[in-house]
C-alpha cells in the first residue's frame, strides 16, 4: 500500500518539482495544477490508509517507528499542509504576489517531501539503534528508539545515528530525481501543454543522473547493510523485482520515441514499484533493522498483531480493496484523457 | 515525565480541537446538500441546484481543511502515544484503518466527481455522488466514535501477560453500548452546526439585501433542520448518552454535575456555580432540588453518588474544566432549541423574513454551535481522564517513551503557528465565497 501511495502521491510531488523548476509561464502552471488538482487529496488518502493498516497489523512497528522518527514525521505533516494550501489557494485571489508565494510554497514543499521520502527509505535500509543501546546496555525497551535529525558527522556508521546522513541524503536525491521524472510523465500524460516537449528532454537527461545515483547507492548499500543480495540468492524468483526496476529505468531512455503520452508514466511507475519491492525483498523478513547486537531487528514476525485481529482485518481489507478498485475505475473513467480545461482552483 | 504528559496532551487537544471545527460542519452540511440536490431532482427548480452548488464550495473548502488537519491526528497516535498504540493498536487500529479504507476513499473519490463532474455525469448520477460523499463522511464519524467508545467503555478484548490488548470479538466493537448514543448525539450536533451556519449566512443575505431569495431558502432550511436537530440532540440522544455515563462512569457524572456529596432524598441540579475543588463544594451555587435525580432515574428521590464515594486517584483530572465544558454545552444546547423554536414559529406565521431581531440573532449565533460541539467533546474526553482506556490504562502510561518534552513543545509550537496561518487563510477564503454568494444558473 505504501508503494502505491508513493506511485500516486509521487506524481503529485514530482509535478510540484516540475512546477518549481520548469514552469515559467502562467499557462504551464495552470496545466500542471489541472493535471493533479482533482487527484491529490484522494492520493493523500493512501497515506492515511497505509498508516491505519500499519497501525492495526503491526502495532509495535507503528509505535516504534512513529515515535523514533518523531521530528521528520511531524515535519512531513507540515510540508503536506503547506503543499496542499499552496495548490488550493493560488487560484483563489488573482494577485501576482499572492500567486508567487503559493507557487513557491507548493513547489518547495513538494521538493522537500520527495527528498524526505527518499531519506526515510534510507533510514529503513540502514537501520536504527533499537533500544538505544549504549555500551552494551539498552536504555529503553528493545523496540523503542529516537533519532535526532542529524549527528555532527553525518555518517551512517557513527555510533549515534541521525535521520540525515550522507547515505540517506543519497537516497533522498534518488527520490527527488525519480519523482521529478514521474511527475513530468504524469503532466505529459494528462495535458497538451507546450511544456511537454521540454519535459521529454528533461526526463531523458535526468534519467542519466538517476542511473548514476542508483549505481552509486547500490555500491554504498553494499557497504552499509550486510548481505543485501542474500535473499535474492536464496530465493531466485525475487530477482523479478530488480529486473522490473531496470526495465523501468532503461525504458525511460526511450521517452522521446513513445507514441502514446502515457507510456512514460508506466515506466516510471514500474521503476518505483520495482524499487520498493526490491528493497523490501532485500531486507525481508526485517521491517526495521537493528544496528546493535543487543536487540533484534523488528521483523514481520515479532511486530505483527494477534492472529484473530489479523484474520478479521484481512476480511474487511479485501472487501475494502474491491470497493476501492471500483472507485478508482469510476474516477479515472470520468476524468479520463487530457485535463487542460477543467479550470482547477478557479471557483 | 510530567512535562512530557502535559505537552503531549496539549498538542493532541490543540490539534483535535482545531481539526474538529471542520468535520462538524461537513458531516451535517453534506446531509443538507443532498437534501437540496434531491429537491432539485424532484422539482427541477434551478434554485435548489444553485443552492447545492454554493454550499458545495463551502463544503469543499472545509473538507480540504479537515483532510490536512486530520492526518496529524492519526500520526500522533504513533508519534506521541506510542506505548498506547503498541498496546492497543490491535484493536483501535482496526477501526481507524477501516475509517481510512472505507470512508476516506469513498469520500475523497466521489468529492472530486461531485465538484467537477456535474456536466459529465448528469443530474441523477451527480446526486448519487453527493449521496456517497455524505455516506462517506457519516461512516467516518461512525468509525471514529467506535474507536472513542472503545476507549470509554472497552469491549471485545483480552489482555495478554505482556500487557497487550488483543481483540477477541470484532463485532463487539460495533455493538458497544457506548457507541450508538454517542454517534447519534454527535451526528445531530453536527447537523445543529450545519443548520446554524446555513441560517446565519441566509440571515446575512436577507439583512444585507443581497441574494435575498437564496437568503430566504437558507434561513428556512436552516431553521427547520436546526429545530429538529437541536431538539433531538438533547432528547433522546443527549439524555441517552448521559445515562451511559451514569451507568459506566459514575465518578465522571458526579464531576460533570458538580456533585461533591451524595445528597439524601435526591440530588439537586446545578444551574450555575464554580467548583471549588479544595473545599469540595460549589461557590455561588444556584440549584434546583431533586431535578437531577428525576432527570437521571425518573424518580425525585433517587440517589446519585457524589464524588465523596470514590477514590480521589480516580477523579477526573480536571474537575472544574469538565464541569464547565458540560455546563456550557448544555446551556448552549438549551438556547439553540429556544432560538430555533422562535424562528420556526415566525416561519409558520410567515413573518420570519421580516422579523429583524430573529435574523440578527441567527446571524450572531454562528460561533455558538461550534463552541457547544467542542465543549461536548471536552466533556467526553476530560470525563475519561485519568484513563486512556477506561479503568484499564492510565493516560500517563500511554506516552512515547523516547520522545523528549523539548521535542514535543517544538512541534506543538509549530502546529500553533501553522494552524493560526491556516485559520486566517480559511476565514479569508470562506469570506470570499460568502461575499460572492450563490451563482444563478444561466438560463
Automatic annotation (TrEMBL), chain A:
Signal peptide: none annotated. GO terms for molecular function: electron transfer activity; metal ion binding; oxidoreductase activity, acting on diphenols and related substances as donors, oxygen as acceptor. One of its GO terms (biological process) is aerobic electron transport chain. It is a multi-pass membrane protein. The chain crosses the membrane at residues 6-23, 44-63, 69-85, 105-125, 163-181, 202-224, 236-255, 267-288, 308-330. One of its GO terms (cellular component) is plasma membrane. InterPro entries: Cyt-d_oxidase_su2 (IPR003317). It comes from the Bacteria. It is found in: Cell membrane. Keywords: Cell membrane, Electron transport, Heme, Iron, Membrane, Metal-binding, Transmembrane, Transmembrane helix, Transport. Its main location: membrane. Belongs to the cytochrome ubiquinol oxidase subunit 2 family. This is Cytochrome d ubiquinol oxidase subunit II. It comes from Arenibacter troitsensis.
Automatic annotation (TrEMBL), chain B:
Its main location: membrane. It is found in: Cell membrane. GO terms for molecular function: electron transfer activity; heme binding; metal ion binding; oxidoreductase activity, acting on diphenols and related substances as donors, oxygen as acceptor. Keywords: Cell membrane, Electron transport, Heme, Iron, Membrane, Metal-binding, Transmembrane, Transmembrane helix, Transport. The keyword Iron applies. The chain crosses the membrane at residues 12-34, 54-71, 91-116, 128-151, 188-208, 217-235, 324-345, 357-380, 409-430. One of its GO terms (biological process) is aerobic electron transport chain. It is a multi-pass membrane protein. GO terms for cellular component: cytochrome complex; plasma membrane. The keyword Transit peptide does not apply. InterPro entries: Cyt-d_ubiquinol_oxidase_su_1. Belongs to the cytochrome ubiquinol oxidase subunit 1 family. This is Cytochrome d ubiquinol oxidase subunit I. It comes from Arenibacter troitsensis. The lineage of its organism: Bacteria, Pseudomonadati, Bacteroidota, Flavobacteriia, Flavobacteriales.
